[in-house]
Amino acid sequence: MSVGHHQPLLLSISEDSENQINQQPHESDPGSSASARYCVKEAWTEFKKLWQIAAPSIFCRLAMFSLTLITQSFAGHLDQRQLAAISIATTVIISISFGFLLIGQPTLLAELTGEVAMWLIPMHLSFVFQFTLMRFLQCQLKTYVIAWVSGVVLVVHLLLSWIFVYKLRVGIVGAALTLDFSWWMSVLGMFIYSVCGGCRNSWTGLSRQAFIGLWDFFKLALASGVMLSLENFYYRILVIVSGIRSAEVAVDALSICISFYGWESMIPLGLFAATGIRVANEIGAGNGNSAKFAAKVSVFNSLVVGFVFFLVIIAFPGKIAMIFTSSSSVISMVEGLALLLAITILFNCIQPILSGVAVGCGWQALVAYINIGSYYFVGVPLGIILGWLLHYGLK
């Protein structure tokens, strides 16, 4: 691969704009109305730059996450145990890969989850290639390719799930197989595009240059991985804890809430990636104020998204559960958790954006320490105390 001049992924605000931001009059000045118009104009410019990369990424994340939701939905309409098993297999084992976390679960549920987990191993292996190819295409501004591939895969997965579960009647194993096929179909689509001429300027074949700076890359990747993993493991632990006493119904209800939260969080996570790029570009160009401005615009966008979903959950608490199950007991429990779910979504829409700012500034290790303290020294112990010792249950 040839080494040449690389332009920023998204064009940064010019130095003139940077100087203009610093020189804008305060609100008390006579020209405050002109300053307000300028800020609105700059906000709109930043909004377009942000969503230029975030929109395809968000669509891709929503589409790929929907694969799991579709599988859970088909399994949930078979019976409660099927939904609980597929939920644990997809939200716990696939995310953590430690089967011993099932200790304490009811025997039938643990056995069924183990069976499903075995069939989901191919899906687990696809993650290595899936996320690497996604990041490679994002760096080439080929996000529209990711969006197209994800959209096609989503449609194919929906059709295959219907055929395997309802027509061929192969049950939960068939649902797991459709997930395997769909994830590898996505990998194959992006791989073919990347190596068959879609990225001529960046992919010229295998090269020894790929190993240059590998150790520095590994250290940065390790810090980022720990930062994100600590946050994701926290929710998976809650799924396990919820099922130790109240089995299928509690696991089903909490899994539905976490699945809906996870689906919605794909939007802030898409903004997380775009925010990291915008902040890194501006800091690299020496535009500190523009980096701050980009972060503020991104936080505002994420808050708007969170507030919209907050209203949807409050307005239709029972409809969400009906997507996954027809069990009245599970639907009733989800309705009882709806307010907490809505508040969680509203508050947590800010955290990915701040993480994006940290990534753009190279502070991944610091965020990892913060996640350890907030999730594991505060969140998990507090959840166990409230749920078990104070008998608040799943809430």
From TrEMBL:
Domain of life: Eukaryota
Annotated TM spans: 50-71, 83-104, 116-137, 144-166, 172-196, 299-318, 330-354, 366-390
A GO cellular-component term linked to this record: membrane
Keyword annotations from UniProtKB, A to Z: Membrane, Transmembrane, Transmembrane helix
Keyword Heme: no
One Pfam family this sequence matches: MatE
Annotated localization: Membrane
Keyword Cytoplasm: no
Family: Belongs to the multi antimicrobial extrusion (MATE) (TC 2.A.66.1) family.
Identification of the protein by name: Protein DETOXIFICATION 27
Species of provenance: Sesamum calycinum
